[in-house]
Amino acid sequence: MASESLQQHQRFLAAVLNTAHEPLDAEERAMARIKFYRIIDRYSKRKRDGSKYKRHLLIRYTYEYALSEESRIHFLQTFYQALELSIDGEGRVNLDDKEQADKLWLKISAFADFLVDNFYLPLSLLLVKASARRAPLPTLMSQPAVPDLITDPREDCLTRDRHRCIITQAFDFDEAVSRHKQYADEAKDDEERSLFKGGNHFLHLEAAPVLPHSLAEIGSSPSELSRTKKLTLEILNIFDNGIQNLINECVGKPRNAMTLTKNYHHMFGEFEFYFTRLDGPNDPPHTYKIDNFLSSPMRKELPVTRTFYTEADGKPIDPPEPRFLALRRSLAHVLYLSSAGQYIDELLKKLKENPADEDGSTELGLFAQLRLDGWCPATNTERQ
């Protein structure tokens, strides 16, 4: 059994790392989609097996929420290779045969778990770590390979967003204190409106990264990347082909950040809300509807529509990268619709409460590997 599991894992690895798929013509693409839905729909009728998330839906929505047709076809080719299936009639599985159908379901379940363990979970860990600390975004000025990085991304982000949370419109507390010291009650906000006479509320604001800056490969050769990091990056590129190059370009810059309160930064890290770009004829550029899946008194400001600025102090400055926000939206939907987000939240809670618990749970080996690869937060012992 261990040998079979290892072989299966190696097959999944080979499928994910395969970047040399043969291009498909229109007929082959249509056939690939039809066969995919026939397989997934077959298992949508399956009785719940006690799993903590809906594996067939994770597979389905990972495909459907990929950000381009090229990315969706890439995922289908990865799916078929991982499951040892062909797009054409060869290697056909008779889904009406219970034994064959059950064997295929085991492969699908294992592939879904592979995606969670090597992509969705590590990415969630990175975002939780990023939202747990209040610190300026890294400038990476020590990296000689990074051209033209700004000197203080947090300050540039706050300036672009007019020192206000993009959701609540709360004004930055520290900036308000500074302006009050200089101008007293006559202080104004960034748009020349009264700061202390207009019902503003003031909170400490943070520059929240849209994607974790540690996903960037800057300063690291492929041989230096950990096993899970390399896998995560490859799956990320399946989701949005070529996005890794854009991450490297935008790390430590306002294109990968927005101003949020601490609470909303934390919720953003847990995929509790998302941005949908509005492209109507009357919508200004870089306008988004910000929404969540479940209404909550803790998110009473949502849904809301906001437009990002593209200049500050008369100088152009980049808004958050639209592809990053689109990717975050896709990931949030996959995690919510498949219940994998809730499952990951439970894993992270277990890791936080018992970081060194050796109770023989199935997650122990996964936690150990993630910690070795630098994904997991430090334990209490490591912080001392």
UniProtKB/TrEMBL annotation:
Domain of life: Eukaryota
Protein name: Uncharacterized protein
